[in-house]
Fold:
Amino acid sequence: MSDSPSTPAGLLASVTDPGALKRLSAEQLTLLAAEIRDFLVAKVSRTGGHLGPNLGVVEMTLALHRVFDSPRDKILFDTGHQAYVHKIVTGRQEGFDLLRRRGGLTGYPSQAESEHDLVENSHASTALSYADGLAKAFALRGEDRHVVAVVGDGALTGGMCWEALNNIAATKNKLVIVVNDNGRSYAPTIGGLADHLSTLRLNPGYEKVLDLVKDALGSTPVVGKPVFEVLHAVKRGIKDAVSPQPMFEDLGLKYIGPVDGHDQQAMESALRRAKGFNAPVIVHAVTRKGYGYRPAEQDEADCLHGPSSAFDVETGKLLAAPSLKWTKVFAEELVRIADERPDVVGITAAMAEPTGIAALAKKYPERTYDVGIAEQHAATSAAGLAMGGLHPVVAVYATFLNRAFDQVLLDVAMHRLPVTFVLDRAGITGPDGPSHYGIWDMSVFGVVPGLRIAAPRDAATLREELREAIAVDDGPTVLRFPSGAVAADTPALRRVGQVDVLREPEPDGTGRKDVLLVTVGSFAGLGLDVAERLAEQGYGVTVVDPRWVRPVPVELTGLAAQHRLVVTCEDGIRTGGVGDAVAAALRDAGVTVPLRDFGVPAGFHPHGTRAEILASLGLTAQDIARDVTGWMSRLDAGEPVEAPQSAL
Structure:
């Protein structure tokens, strides 16, 4: 393929809807696939995004839209990050200039973008459940429509997939499951015999004949059943010789494949046969991430799965200068702790590289467990490890731990087990959109009895608080930090109990202590900026970092009592967040100082950069300082303060 930047041209410019694909010849489809790969590399190299998975599904997506009639037939992607090609062929080529940028295309399917998109949730292992319900609804309403679920990137390691398959197999609905196997667990089976047997297995007449044989032999009580079992074993033996995944048929699902997912005609043939069967069918496609783009194919880590920012088209290397990332600091400190403590083990849910657990796995592979996309299992397996005398460190994205709330609550916390959950990408993470924002954890897990939550503000406090978390032996702990570059070091002036004091009023003789500004984690820098603005207005501001935000440190209530107003700032949902917890602690301690809280309003906020989103939510130093100044003016006038309008 060419590595030069491209804009829609040639055949690609003529594809403005899926119907255009059905008019193309085999030769034209081959050319179109190359143009799409050029287009993807050119666009994603400027914006960042999920490149490797989409390079691997070009021919598969073209085949899907040639065989099925979207949007009447529903095509669901699990996970949604492999839907870029789907977006290209459904009329959204021009939007790729702003891919994952504010006002541009999302990195996942979006109902607001196109009638061809239905499911927006980008969390893995859910599409089969959506598809099961959709197919049942169409059948009940008497609608002749197909549902197609494209399952890939490890989604089948998630328990929901198998729960859904168990139900799908019990129906006769028009549902096609395309398994995008890019792990190359099996080599594609090629040749006329395999193609013939795949066709035969999906032939309704074949099924009827098999049923007749079964019924006839079953009527012979002594010989019939054993004979049928022998015939069935022979049939399965032939199929197993060419189909390496009989487990799907063990569930009662028809199976076709493996199919070379980069062979346009083979994919189309398989999908047409699957569609014609009019019942649940598995189509097993073998693909390669990064296919057709040399830097992706040669990237051993993850085939350029998701470059976070612009990269050089020739080399695939990021253009931005490398910076120290939160994940790297965690990974390095975890390995140091593991060197000292042989009881420390690591767990991740198919995210070893992105969460930093890969560093532990490299040095201590026998002490590291990747459970696949199975956060619920990860939490309860960690509980078992803790019961066995170990201290598990479970590293996941903050958004994904939501899926394991019950396990954290009842399997870990209720047993007071020492498990540390490390939440990467906490807070507003930006381009990946609302399904990936880690804004729920402090609210959701704040209700778990005995669970402690820490939020480091910089590299030094991350290392310190990780060690403190792993030292806890009577219950679970959570350590949360954002994505991207680590904030600048913010040393404390002093420590009161476990609370760090980052700034205090200047000793100007007035002794004014007007505002206690409580900042959570990476918002420490924001708090210091706010304090500087308020000081210019003549107010005395104390900025503190509680370090451990749940339970609320008792020292915080004592500090609050010394001020006229308490203001909390957190990178999480306001409802049930740290601000609510601090307010409850003040009430319990009989401290009547008014409190106002800044945080993320409950909702599904659009994608953009972190700075853009925080600005739109009123979470900037200017916005916060303006509101606080207004409240202080009211207090000076003897009037009650009001809740912030910018952060409701």
About this structure: The longest helix spans residues 26-47. The radius of gyration is 28 Å.
